[in-house]
Design goal:
CATH class of the largest domain: Alpha Beta
Low-confidence stretches: none
Structural class: alpha+beta
Strand content: 15-25%
Largest sheet: 6 strands, antiparallel
Distance between the termini: 75 Å
Mean pLDDT: 93
Number of strands: 25
Number of helices: 19
Length: 680
């Protein structure tokens, strides 16, 4: 394994349109902080870079909806996020933001270098323009009917009902969310990064040179590369972001996916200026190791797109590893900010004061390293009571109490060592290698398991030796036993530091010692005989059922509100009777139904309309089994222009009702009518 002189560690920039939740922590920030704290304990030269991602369309939409400026939005959430991270002990060397002047300059300079060297492709294309609002429309400012499931409120980049990725041109009857008017196509010029030109180099770099990457990361990269890379726009028409630094580019900014990762560099520059360091040694020196901590939704950006940007620039190192995690669920349900189905960090810190490490521990134990995992409040309680209180806290407290009781709080001298003592000390000596091996390969759950096993070793040693009995029958053995227990406790202050820094500090305070270097982990000579330790206190408190029930009740209320809240879309614009009369809606019967291959949402239906028998593709596969709807009476719009969907020509649209939970139901007559009867 190559030895590096310094380490540059980044964690994905949280998007500043909302607070941080436990999914973010388990996926990105807890593992990054564990790794950085471990490196610092080893005495490594490491810089830990964080910051808020503050540009992009979602922030402008939130600002517009709240009647404030985008800067107001990012200022609010940047403050909340930064304070929450500090209180949880996420030990960034700098936590800055992409709206800063230094970031705007860094991103502009980066773009300009690639532009001047001809690294971009310039394209003119037609995009939707709102003539009434007098601006080009970002994808999220366009809504229309999804061509796949016929959801009438699909966005220009994705239908949130069926999950299909879209482009604005895919939408049926597109409309601007700014004015409500129908947008027009107008030519606009943008710059594209030709990812295809980097494809061969990226394939070798990832698929051949980095087979040690986590399988979930490697697999996603391989899928993208096998599908072939295409040029990707680096600019867009918007008034919030880093202005494109080219003459004649008024009203255009750098696409947020392009400017955000440059935030790692600009934040490093900002840190270096304050710390008196040379930032280039952390980004442009082959003796520096660059590691990106991210969630799975950011894998492609950090493994393919950002490295392509760095290669195009030519002066930067590429990441040595990108240990991306999967998603964390909450109570067996996907975390959703829009549904408020989350445990928000800033709220947790209020509800559970002084219990930062309980959350850090539980999230580390349940870290979704290669597959999605789940957080439940009952498990959180059990981890605290059965592991932190009963194992780690119990051993440290008993050791301190017995030391005060038998030796007035002074470390007794190590006497003769018996075989069982030697066996325990031999086990202690192996923990450094075990934990270090797991941390170096980003197996944080395994590393924490081994760290807790050290506390288990201490508990077993105490239980087996029973010094409270020996003090009466063989008091000469007790000093050795308690010395070994105190040495194990001192080792726990080292090994727990990356995972639970507040607890490690408490152990050091109890032992009346300072921080100990990682390389001393496993030693049984950390505290000298005669050293005075402090009075005992509990490291952890039991969490009672009432505290957990309150959190579960809060989630149940959230779910109840989501289920009962009736979402009634506003009435659409008034149409004339002539417009309505153009629609030919008939009764029909489903004769055949089958799933459309390689889709989750679509059914291919054969419908007897009374006029003919025709094929219709409908996005109802998640609501109805095909074999159960054969013979079903439906209402069908028969004079809708044919449209090809997944290679199938669909002739018409069946009418469905949708409730507030997104469930679909057929619209049919309450009397028996022949197929082809007109619906007026």
């Amino acid at each position: 394994m190559k030895e590096f002189k310094r380490y540059t560690v980044t964690s994905a920039l949280p998007y500043a349109n909302g607070p941080v939740h436990i999914g973010h922590l388990a996926g990105v920030y807890i593992p990054a902080d564990i790794y950085v704290r471990y490196l610092r304990l080893k005495g490594k030269d490491v810089v830990f870079i964080g910051g808020s991602d503050e540009h992009g369309v979602p922030i402008t939409i939130k600002a517009r909806n709240e009647g404030v400026s985008p800067q107001d939005v990012v200022d609010k959430y940047h403050g909340i996020i930064k304070k929450s991270f500090e209180e949880l002990g996420i030990s960034f060397d700098i936590y800055s933001r992409t709206s800063s002047k230094i970031h705007h300059k860094t991103a502009s300079d980066f773009f300009r270098k690639l532009y001047d060297e001809g690294k971009f492709i310039e394209k003119t294309s037609e995009q939707y323009y709102d003539a009434e609002a007098q601006q080009f429309l970002a994808d999220r400012y366009i809504k229309g009917t999804c061509p796949h499931c016929h959801n009438e409120d699909a966005y220009g980049d994705q239908c949130e009902k069926c999950g299909t990725s879209l482009s604005p041109m895919d939408l049926i009857n597109p409309r601007s969310t700014l004015s409500g008017s129908q947008p027009i196509l107008r030519e606009t010029k943008h710059w594209y990064l030709p990812l295809d030109q980097h494809e061969a180099a990226l394939k070798k770099w990832i698929l051949e040179d980095h087979k040690e990457w986590k399988p979930n990361v490697y697999g996603q990269c391989k899928s993208w590369l096998d599908a072939g890379l295409q040029p990707r726009a680096v600019s867009r028409d918007l008034d919030w972001g880093v202005p494109v630094p080219v003459e004649g580019a008024d009203g255009k900014v750098l696409y947020v996916w392009f400017d955000a990762p440059i935030g790692y560099i600009s934040n490093t520059i900002e840190w270096a200026e304050k710390a008196g360091k040379d930032w280039k040694k952390y980004w442009q020196d082959e003796e520096a190791k660059l590691v990106h901590f991210i969630g799975k939704d950011n894998i492609v950006f950090h493994c393919i797109i950002f490295p392509a940007m760095l290669r195009a620039h030519g002066q930067y190192i590429l990441p040595d590893n990108v240990p991306g995690n999967e998603f964390l669920n909450l109570e067996n349900d996907k975390i959703s900010t829009s549904r408020n189905w989350a445990v928000w960090l800033h709220e947790y810190l209020v509800d559970f004061p002084g219990k930062q490490d309980v959350l850090r521990y539980t999230l580390a134990v349940n870290m979704p390293e290669t597959k999605d995992n789940d957080f439940t409040w009952k498990d959180f309680q059990a981890r605290n009571n059965s592991e932190l209180v009963a194992i780690l806290g119990n051993f440290v407290n008993r050791t301190a109490v017995l030391t005060q009781k038998y030796f007035e709080g002074k470390v007794p001298a190590l006497g003769s060592i018996e075989p069982f003592d030697r066996e325990t000390l031999n086990d202690l000596a192996h923990y450094k290698d075990k934990v270090e091996k797991a941390l170096e390969t980003f197996h944080f759950r395994e590393a924490l398991k081994e760290a807790m096993n050290l506390a288990r070793l201490g508990n077993k040693y105490l239980a087996d030796t029973e010094p409270w009995k020996l003090i009466k029958t063989n008091p000469e053995r007790v000093p050795t036993i308690m010395n070994i227990c105190l040495q194990i406790t001192a080792n726990l202050s080292i090994v727990m530091e990356p995972f639970m820094p507040f607890t490690a500090e408490k152990i050091r305070h109890l032992l009346n010692i300072g921080a100990i270097n990682w390389n001393q982990l496993g030693s049984h000579q950390l505290i000298a005989a005669g050293h005075q330790v402090g009075e005992s206190f509990l490291l952890f408190d039991k969490i009672e059922d009432a505290e957990i029930d309150a959190q579960i009740h809060k989630l149940q209320e959230t779910k109840k509100n989501n289920q009962t809240q009736t979402k009634v879309n506003p009435a659409k614009e008034v149409i004339s009777y002539d417009d309505f009369s153009k629609m030919d809606i008939r009764t029909g019967t489903i004769l055949e139904a089958e799933r459309v291959p390689k889709t989750k949402k679509l059914l291919k239906l054969l419908i007897d309309t009374g006029i003919d028998k025709r094929t219709v593709v409908s996005g109802i596969a998640e609501h109805y089994e095909p074999e159960k709807i054969i013979g079903k009476k439906v209402s069908i719009l028969v004079n809708l222009a044919p449209r090809e969907i997944k290679g199938i020509e669909s002739h018409g649209m069946i009418l469905m009702a949708e409730n507030s939970q997104g469930e679909l139901g057929f619209i049919s007559c309450d009397k028996e009518f022949n197929n082809g009867s007109e619906i007026r």
